[in-house]
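Researcher: Hi, I'm a grad student and pretty new to this. My advisor asked me to get structures for two proteins we've been looking at. I'm not sure of the right format, so I'll just paste the first sequence and hope you can take it from there.
Model: That works fine. Here's the first sequence with its structure tokens right after it:
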Amino acid sequence: MVVELICVGTELLLGNIVNTNAAYLSEKCALLGLSMYHQSVVGDNAERLKESLETALNRSDVVILSGGLGPTQDDLTKETAAEVMGIPLKEDPHSRERIEEYFKNSQYKVITDNNWKQALVPEGAIVLDNENGTAPGIIMEKNGKSVILLPGPPGELIPMFEGKVYDYLNKLQPEIIYSTMVRICGLGESFVENEIRDLIDNQTNPTIATYAKIGQVDLRVTAKAASEKEAAKLAKPMLKELVKRFGDHIYTMDEHKSLEEVIVHFLKERSLTLTTAESCTGGMIAARITDVPGASEVFKQGLVTYSNRAKRKLLDVKKTTLKEYGAVSEKTAKEMAKNGAFITGSDACVSVTGTAGPTGGTEEKPVGLVYIGCCYNNKTVVKEFHFKGERQKIREQATANALILLRECILADKGQE
């Protein structure tokens, strides 16, 4: 089964926005076992879009188009695709009703006439409700070909693809795809890949692929078989071997769960409370924790102590410590974590202090030097890191490693196992 991708929008050609949809859809199609040999970007021009779609249909079984489904005059994707497929447009009462409901519940109460073009759908098409916007998605089928139209905003496209399109594409395949994501933290990409080199070199079915992210490495295990049960059975020995090799460094096998979600669940299970004491990360750790629904049950307080004065006043870091060792030091990180837990009455406190740059570094304390502390069960551990990259990347690495250290400290406590 061959799939082709066409992303629509002049703003993509001009570089006004980054085409993240292409990367997302390419990865998802690969996981489904679909072959993708071509993808293209077309501006908001009916003739050029028509030409691209006709070419794609001549060489591919499925064509996915993203963008150009909105209410404005330059949103031409649906009209052009329907013309190429030779299918007339007609108003879909259900889609019209959903558009009315959307505006009723939004800050924009007046529905301009151009919005109703979004309720026009190709006759006989599969209509995909948009739970996050007004433009519905559409699947057209004709002469053994499928054309899938998805809205351009990632916040609309991704939920629609995962909720509806993924299953549709999976059913087109002669084989069922079973895929599991093994998410690893606390180990580098090169180390992880070296540990599974033999598995990669000898893979057939299932296959294994690595994806590196800040602070973690994901391993995608994919198996194909006539049924999901059979495919899952094929993947089981590989998953068992990965657990054997990486143990507690695996924090989840659910690709939809983030490290912070797992940690919040972890804290809830053990009835533990958490405080964060941050300097160079400026509240990024607290933000990731509080992004998780229900975090209020475990998260007590987030302290951003950027200045030395704040460290002294809010975290009781000793003036002599700051003078003798400096704000960026193991000693300061230790006092931040220990005092943060004590002052807020939390079971655990994670602290971060460092130099994120691009200025402020010295030969003794260069940009990228970060100390991360964790106080848990009256024991305080501090780790020294030397991160590389620009300012934002250093802060993101520090945030991820702070969460990893928190998890490690709780896991290491035998009383909590």
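Researcher: Oh nice, that was easy. Here's the second one.
Model: And its structure:
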Amino acid sequence: MSQTTFTPPAASRMSPKELRSSMSLAAVIGLRMLGLFMIIPVFTIYARTVPGGENAATVGLAIGIYGFVQALFYIPYGWLSDRLGRKPVIATGLAIFALGSVIAALAHDMNGLILGRAVQGLGAVSSAVIAFVADLTAEANRTKAMAMVGGFIGISYAVAIVAAAPLFGWIGMKGIFLLIAVLAVAAIAVVFWVVPDPGVKPVHHKAPFRTVLHNPELLRLNFGVFVLHATQIALFVVIPRALVEAGLPVVHHWVLYLPVMGLSFVLMVPAIIVAEKHGRMKPVMLAAIALLLAGQILLATMPHTIWTVAIFLLIYFLGFNVLEASQPSLVSKLAPGERKGAAMGVYNTTQSLGYAVGGAGGGWLLAHVSASSVFTVCSVFVFAWLIVAATMARPPQRARAEAASTKH
């Protein structure tokens, strides 16, 4: 019973340096993801105006190749950052990402866009940034730092989804790609001039990947993030075109996305509070996965009017936002201290593979089968995830996890 009244010790409070480190590194990822997410709602519409863009499978490849390349380079970037230092490796990756954005901006056909997206994927700095967060924060505060990173990503996603269509109408897709390059350069400035340097070079413990890969709870989370991002990207292969066909011009898509994203974030907050503070993470996660499934089934089976798409997206993104915020924190809690980097590396890799499979697979299904088949296949994947997640062990509660960390 004493565990229920546990009060975290003062040492678990983040120091000013830890707070600055976490927020600045979260901003680095947020700036990069802000630009990346801006592409999602408008790319399939833009592709129709580019030679080769009439083929939905090619468009899906252009969306998904970023994830394929990024998945290959997460671990090498983390390895290099251990040996060459975090800041130079992160800055180099961001510069490569900016270069890919410029290549895409200057492209005149789908081949050029695919090349630009592939080069963007070469700047896979997330694993190095997460390792840097671990360098600059105490073990007891690492979950809080990871939550800040997840929060910045969530905010970036919401802003990008809402802002993409107006920006597309104002500066076009080429302008968006150039804006992405500018945001990457701004992130480089944050790395060098805002992120503090570690006072003492951290000791890096070898992280045996087989141990991480044999952990059934981490495997469930890895499968989950794969499905989460595969279904999200596949959804946006179809939805922008569906909205245009329903009578909503692309420059006005923000009118739908703004209330959907805003309301889904407001409704997400009490769910996260219940999950974290009251030890209800498993039922909240299962409910969120069920919402994903309901949204995909409705999109697969019901007519696509502006109002129905808005309702179905609200259902889907309520579940999506809860899972996007809670899963990285769970990875951090479930992985042993010296293996958090390895666990996050595998998690980020499967996330990128989901991004890639969702883009390429969604494009292929749209081109060769139908729009509804995209949502049907996504429904099957989400249902499989629901079954897998139903067998998960009860995740550790925050107070218990912090109490356990103070004993070692």
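Researcher: Is there anything I should tell my advisor about the second?
Model: You could mention this: The two ends are 21 Å apart (CA to CA).
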